[in-house]
Amino acid sequence: GVPTALWTMPGVTDLVKLLVNRRPVQVPRGSTLLDAIRKAGARVPTLCYHPDFKARAVCRMCLVDVEGSGKPLPACYTAAQDGAVVTTDSSSLDKYRRGELELLLARHPNECMRCEVSGQCKFQDLVQESRLEDKWPKVARGAAEAHAHGEAREEVHALVDHSSPAIARDMRKCVECGLCVDACGPQGQALDVIGFVDRGFGTVPLTVFEQPLGDTGCISCGQCTARCPVGALTERPDWQRVLGVLDARRRTTVVQTAPATRVAIGEEFGFPPGTVSTGRLVSALRALGFDYVFDTNFSADLTIMEEAHELVARVQGKRGPLPQFTSCCPGWVNYVEIHRPDLIPHLSTTKSPQQMHAAAAKRGPFADFVQRQRRAAASALGPEPESDEEPFVVSVMPCTAKKDEAVRPGMRGDVDAAITTRELARMIRHRRIPFASLPNDAQFDSPLGESTGAAVIFGASGGVMEAALRTATHILGDDAAPLEWEACRGVAKGVKVATVPGVGTVAVASSIAAAQEMLRDPSEAWRRHVAIEVMACKGGCLGGGGEPKSDRPDILQERARGIYAIDASAAKRRSHENEEVAALYREWLGKP
Predict the structure, then answer these.
(1) Model pTM above 0.85
(2) Is the peptide bond before 237 cis (omega within 30 degrees of 0)?
(3) What pLDDT shows up at residue 441?
(4) Distance CA 228, CA 246 (A)
């Protein structure tokens, strides 16, 4: 008999029923054949599909046979219909997919051993699974390829670009999926830095006017790198340099980990999205050889102490103009500086948690402690060292723009290397560390490791605002204010508004596209808020450009679930309750 679960979907009434490889399945009306195929437990490959964007159906990998259609149809684009009989694995489909892959391989460099995404590349997976070999002569992409096919072109596009401090481009590896164009365009960030040029064999996505990426309006958000299925667009790699420092053991090494990394790193090693892997993360970093493993959440609490006091001062008319915009997202700060410099006075003067933590590690009481330890160890073995080298500070971030922030004028040198969650996963795999088997109860080091629940929700859109309100209302004497500000929560693209009794309204913009729309409003309603949080990426840091790649439509919701679970179970949930932060003010900073 047919399993009942395949025919029923609780709570959904408008369904279509169809057969996929003879297996009955039903999906909500409006679903695609790809949705139905996945519901049935079958699989077809995709290179150009992502649930955030309208399907382009250009890679032709997901072609399926539908009885009566007369030709193969792209599953990602074709609507599921009642009574459809779908086949995904016929010999003709396999032959067609192989032919498409062979043509792509003819235009793809065989550089897998040197590629940043080797082992995590969709195209590489398909080539290996199909056991393909080079069938056609190699042909370069861009104008050179057009020449090879008899098209008259004089220009030759620059396909390799390392001008950005955050993003590396090697369009020789491009498979023309268009996902980077969508991620940067109206369906994504609405920045339009990347677009297709030329047609036919010469088609390739390039920057506006073919400028180096570092000279464009790019804000380094990295959404293009998170969507690219191959190695054409990646974060600018720093993990190899970090491994070299760790292997040499010459310098004291310090690492800090952002809140969003602990609920995403597990995805790289088979854990479900949203799994809280804080202890495993700490254990892996120690196994890599870091001397001190700290939590960026510590400096997130420190950020809130500064930002909340600044907000209260602005509300009381003692500081700059209202509304106060958050400043912890470097992609947003880049956008303001490049596209809306008139908003600079509205930005909070507070550094981001990454930069605060690094400065404390390099120049605060902890730095003095490290120097004393080094001198003591050296004197026990002989004469004291001639120079006192600073700790080598590494940050593990969900964000590619943090690489940009680390080399900004006035901040350069505090963070020696900013690596993404994906880069950390590469380091762990390269050192053959069994992440899934590591204990999940390891703790961060002190004195820069204590944190509160307010700090961890920095990882989600609305989290910075919610954390700031928990402390700002305390400063204003309203200890009866709620801990949880539900109106600030949610990972969808858009703007959320919450009302703070006796103070005014605050807003939260999830994605730079939502922020642009808010700022373009002719009524300038944004000016009526007292504070506005902007995160450049949809969902906040949980959807950062350096997080593990995923095609799951619910990935941000699952990661957010993990973040808020940590907050809900925290013994302390307000930043001003962090005792190590209070001690730092007493011993070094004075007052916010």
Answers:
(1) yes
(2) no
(3) 96
(4) 30
